[in-house]
Amino acid sequence: MADRDALTQFAPYVVDVMNEADLTPRRLGAPGEKNDYVDLAWSPDGRWLAYSNDEGYIAADADKDFVEAWRGSCSAAPVWSVSIRLAACIDSADDALRMLDANSGVTLAAIPVAGWLYPRDYAWSPAEDRLAFVRDIEGSQLSTLSILESDGEEHAVPMAALKYLRFQWSLDGRWLAFEGKDDDGESAWVVDTRQPALPPQPVGASNGQMTWGRGSLILRHGKVLSAVDASRSPIETTVISDALYGFWISRDGSVLAYATPKGLTFASLSAGRITMLSTAPIGDAAEVLIAGQNALVISQQHPKYARHVTTHGGPVSYFGSSGERMDESALSPDGRRALLALANETRSRLLRVDFESMSSHTVFESKNGIGALQWVAPQRYSFEVGAALYLGFASNKAPILLHGPYSNLRDLGQVKWQPKERDR
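The chain above was modelled as a monomer; its predicted structure follows.
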């Protein structure tokens, strides 16, 4: 689909959809109805748009001009499976985790759960139509983990109950890593979801920081950073550093960055192998955004500032002027460009940086704050100034006003762009 629709929520009762071709907003919902829309969500393929009112969640079909397809008694936004055949949501009316047919909203399975589940407590596998979810033990602070098959069959992971249970799917959808607290402290385990009846394998102590890269689970405990290769028997754990300040992983899981007293080191991750790439002389990284071979490094100190370095080494470049602070940043999906919202005592400006030419351009200035930076696509981005929404471009074309401003609103609420990739 050449044109894409922006979805905006306004304070907080109405939802507008807008087509970029003519920039004409359209309001969803019944005229005059107090819809009280919240928790806007797109399906991964961009076909389904879910939003709630007092009666539950509404799923609208973007391919049919956002006609209402079904309503469900969900208490939080539905999450869709990769195949988009199924959706899942929590229904607090009867404390059930519901598996739904994505096209009709018909409940295929309803699994009773004790207590309230937050969206982070259930997630589809990246590769298969399986749902992992946390099952609380009633009357306690303990939880266990279960896997729900697409046919509604539940497999309880054979594990001891834990406090503060958290989990993550591996990028290939085969493994589940989970961590929590027992009598011995916080620890982490992995389970092979192809063999869910087998006991989980312990992978070491944890302090709430674990992330999957390509082929490896990256795990932090104190100052120790380790990589776990779950595919090996027995599981193989490699200590990467024992003097860690922090770590970050690229969006695609292929590059790891970690900070130590020696600087900021980059390593590639592939099939359980870790290959060191370079170390940059940066000692105060608070956040590292990585895409492609480019990394945007945000400082710890205040006022914050941004630097650029490639993952394979080279000079460090600084952005911004003396007296400016950096309020917000965003790296484009392809890693070729970045947006920086900079401000001093009298003005704000939006700086667009092109890493290939190492050039930067101020594309917008305002007396008001600039924020909510989002890359819509590698060539386009959006940002907000007060209650106004703008669309910007990777070229030197000036940003255009999409929506607003509204004098009676402080913020736009939610702005969510339709996913570009349509796989149907």
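The mean pLDDT is 85.
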